[in-house]
Amino acid sequence: MPIQIHLSGDERLNLGSSSILYLPNTVSLEHLQKIADGLCEQDVIFSADTNTSRELTTYAARFWNEVSAPKKKSISEENFKKLETNYYRNHAWGSKKNSQKIRQLELDAEKFVTDVSDVKERLLQAKKDGELAYSLVNSLLNEIKKFGFGEKLDKWVKATSDGLPNRVIESILREKKNKLSRLEKNKIKAELNKGYRISSEELTLTNDIHPNFLPALKPSTKWTVAIDETGEIHDPNFASEAQNSFVGKFVALIVPESISLPPLDDGFHATDEIHAVVEENLRRLTSQPVGIFGFSVKDPVVFGDNWYQQIDLLIRWVLRLLPIDQHQTTTVKFEVEQTTDYRGSALSIRAESILAELKRISPARYSNLELHMKFVKKKESKFNGYVDTIANCWGSPTPERKALLQHFKLEDHCLLSPDSNGLLERTLIALNDGHSLLPEDWYRLASSINEIGSRTLVDDVLLQLGETAQNAPYVWIRYLAEVQERLRVKEASPHILSRAIGWLNTYKPKDHEIPKIVKLQYRAAQLALDNHQGLSAQDVLAETMALAFQLLDEDAPQAAEVILRSVISMTNAYSFDLMLPYIDKVLEEEPKVFGLKNYGKLLSTRGQLAAFKEDYEGAVNYFDQALLSFNKLSDPIQRSREIKQTQSYRMFALLDKSSANCGLIKDQCEEFVNTQSRTNLNQAVKHMHTWEGTKRFAHHLLLRALATERLKEEYLVDQYIASFDDWVLGEDHPWQLIAFYRAILLARHGRIADAQQQIRLSLDICDGHPHGTITWIGTVIERCASQLDLLPKDLKADAGKRFEIARRALPNAPINHLETAFSGSFEAIDDELRLLLPFNFR
User: Fold this and answer.
1) What residue ranges carry the coiled-coil annotation (predicted)?
2) Is 542 helix (H, G, I), strand (E, B) or coil?
3) Which phi-psi region, left, alpha or beta, contains residue 306 (left: φ > 0; alpha: ψ -120 to 50)?
4) Residue range 191-203: average pLDDT?
5) Which among 83, 85, 74, 82 has a CA at the least distance from the CA of 41?
6) Where are the beta strands (DSSP E) in 311-464?
7) Cα–Cα dist 486/525, whole Å
């Protein structure tokens, strides 16, 4: 307890933990100072009326002699007791999840070894008692589950507590009391939550951008950032096997000065509130231009192993995402709810080093940034209740809170889960010095650019880098080579590739001669992008082909790649004859001229042209020759990749081959999945609803076989539909066809509403691509769905718009046949589709 010296008078002198009343004219301040210095932390009470200055001096001298010697030891003992108690509690709360705190306490305990004789023994006992308390508290919770509260539980507590250390008994009784209190509160809350249904309108996104996506907000001169977290595990090493509700999730609410949110009650805690209140808070947030961002410690880019490090990461992450007008002073104030270990202004010291880090990345962007950071009490932050609401919904295991999170589309758009795309967010936090980016880092950065209507840190860094590349062609050429490598190993989706190619196009070196072979590589990359998107670059195709043949002797493999992509470009334009002479000419060369891989690709491409012309027998023959070529490749990864892709083409040709009966198709499908996934057909169909990346092509092929009944196995259809709730969907080709064939399967099973939703998803994917083959595919899907009465009502008004776009973009497509196609019969779908979408277009 603090020292209290009570004297008459009203002047107070504060000395450390002592509070001393000063008696004027009788005892000097120096006297009292000496007395205070000589006292230990205990009550010393003097009579206000009888103690004179002389008596005080005498007492101080006597007290000094009696108490001063053990003073240091007494203080050490008292402080160690606090540490010992904390050490016990962290074990009682679970040593695994509190391992970092326990380790720190063990390190701190070493400071007491000289003044406290039995440190090691007492820590050992505290650990033993804490682990016992942890075990018994869990047993208590199991007993409560079995018997509830009552006489049986009381008897169990009494019998269990017999002979236990007092602190262990207190832990058991405290948990029992808290559990009972929570139970009573939950009963009341459950009664109020009865019949709850979400009443607000489901959030709709514009261009797939959430209204609370921080980088898309307008800049503000002042921001307040409230931070909260949920979950107990803050170390990624322990998060992988933990239940989701225990995994640490850190959330920031970023509010510009112009926005005013209705105040919440002091001490608001979402876990104690009914669902309707939580819903209203989320509705308020999503209807205002405030930023929301959060991450889970399971995220692949998270590296910290304790609470403070994750808070630090969140602060740095927010500042990189924050929209900033670099021409104005921007003030950002961070408010982090304090804990036992972190409070007050302890965070402000970190602000200076964070600012220095940001200015190294983008000096101009952060030159006028002012940063204020501190730990605050819950009641000191007016936005704490709102950020607590978000954290509670994200970490809650209850279906209602999860439904609210989904209803307002916060997860994956604002709250970064480990499975989220999050390319922009993860790129920003990984960004260091933008002036010396390695090619792979540049590609990741360029790929992360989103059309969000505002300028991000990524834009600033890429601008700086672009200006460098324009004056240093070797930089630009290195980045082009990275795109080429991504294309070679097939690690480039159209959306990502278009961003990287767009940067290369914007920052092509000026006034510098680029070697012809580099120009050819650039044209190859452009063609690859166009082909992914179903476009046909007719205006540059002739020039590109001329350049390829001009450089055939200089770099035959590179020239062959361009020729191959030119063929695909022509097929996208529904021109299947024009490139035949070119392919046949280069196939006259020996395989060694182009290399086995390119020669195999040329054979495979020749097979595709035959399949487009409905020569399925010839197509299969060319594919078999290509497979022989690929089988000779020495690189097992490359060999496997090329074989799998060519086998897919071969299977598409077989599906179209009328002489191939269902038995043959099933046998070939078995062989196909065994090569693709080292599994059987049954297991493949069971899991293919999750196949993404390059496996999406095999997914498309098998699904088409089932939907068109070329693979006539009803149990496989039932098995696939059973996984409906877990179906994944991407943005690239052929996801629009996967969604379409899903709709056919669902409609055949009477699930018309679900089928219509799949049609909607399919058309959304088609609309997300530039006008070309995929637009035509969307036009055909729209017509087919309309004839089968699967087109959602709200889309019927726009029916026909795609037709006009496709007619202008693809004059060679069978436009006229579309107007009379589809009889409305499921059985005739594949035959009618074959005329409109030949070979692997469907």
Assistant:
1) 166-193
2) helix
3) beta
4) 82
5) 74
6) 330-337, 369-376, 415-416
7) 10
What is the Cα–Cα distance from 52 to 63, expressed in whole angstroms? 16
CA separation for the pair 67, 568 (Å, rounded): 93
Q: Which two tokens stand for residue 431?
A: 């960004």
762 contacts 739 by C-beta, under 8 angstroms: yes
What's the angle, vertex CA 802, arms to CA 801 and CA 804, rounded to 5? 70
Domain borders along the chain are: 4-69, 76-192, 214-422, 427-645, 729-841
Nearest to 57 by CA among 26, 35, 41, 29: 35
**In degrees rounded to 5, what are phi and psi of residue 288?**
-120, 150
Whether the per-residue pLDDT at 43 is higher than 90: the answer is no
For position 67, what pLDDT does the model report? 43
Residue 810 and residue 776: Cα distance in Å, rounded? 8
Q: What is the CATH number of domain 214-422?
A: 3.30.420
For 477-518, the pLDDT digits (tens) are: 888 888 777 767 666 565 566 677 778 878 888 766 666 776
Of 300, 296, 336, 337, the residue nearest 315 (C-alpha): 336
User: Hey, which residues does 375 pair with through a beta bridge?
Assistant: 336
CB of 738 closer than 8 Å to CB of 696: yes
Give the separation between CA 48 and CA 161, rounded to whole angstroms: 48
> Whole-angstrom Cα distance, residue 95 to residue 76?
25
Q: What is the DSSP string of 68-130?
A: STTHHHHHHHHHHHHHHHHHHHHHHTTTTTTHHHHHHHHHHHGGGTTT-TTHHHHHHHHHHHH
CA distance 735 to 716: 20
Q: What number of residues does the chain have?
A: 842
CA-based R_g, the chain, Å: 36
| Stated pTM of the model | 0.53
More confident residue, 451 or 227: 227
Over pLDDT 90: what percentage of the chain?
18
- Write out the DSSP string of 224-287: EEEEEEE-SB--HHHHTTS-GGGB-EEEEEEEETT--PPPPPTT--GGGS-HHHHHHHHHHHHT
Amino acid at 792: P
For the stretch 241-260, pLDDT in tens is 666 667 889 999 999 999 98
CA distance 118 to 114: 10
Q: Is 811 helix (H, G, I), strand (E, B) or coil?
A: coil
Which pLDDT score is estimated for 44?
46
SS3 789: coil
- Edge-to-edge strands, sheet with 11-15: 4-5, 18-22, 11-15
Most trustworthy range by pLDDT among 53-62, 424-433, 569-578, 638-647: 638-647
What is the Cα–Cα distance from 752 to 89, expressed in whole angstroms?
57
> What does DSSP assign to residue 203?
P
Say if residue 257 is exposed, middle or buried (CB neighbours under 10 Å; 0-12, 13-18, 19+). Answer: exposed
Distances (CA, A) of 656 to 4, 691, 830: 96, 24, 9
CB atoms within 10 A of CB 238: 19
CATH topology for the 427-645 domain = 1.25.40
Q: What whole-number distance in Å separates Cα of residue 772 and Cα of residue 535?
A: 5
Q: Write down the pLDDT at residue 41.
A: 41
- What is the pLDDT, as a whole number, of residue 280? 92
Q: In sequence order, what are the beta bridge partners of 416?
A: 295
pLDDT: which is higher, 839 or 119: 119
Q: pLDDT above 70 covers what percent of the chain? A: 81
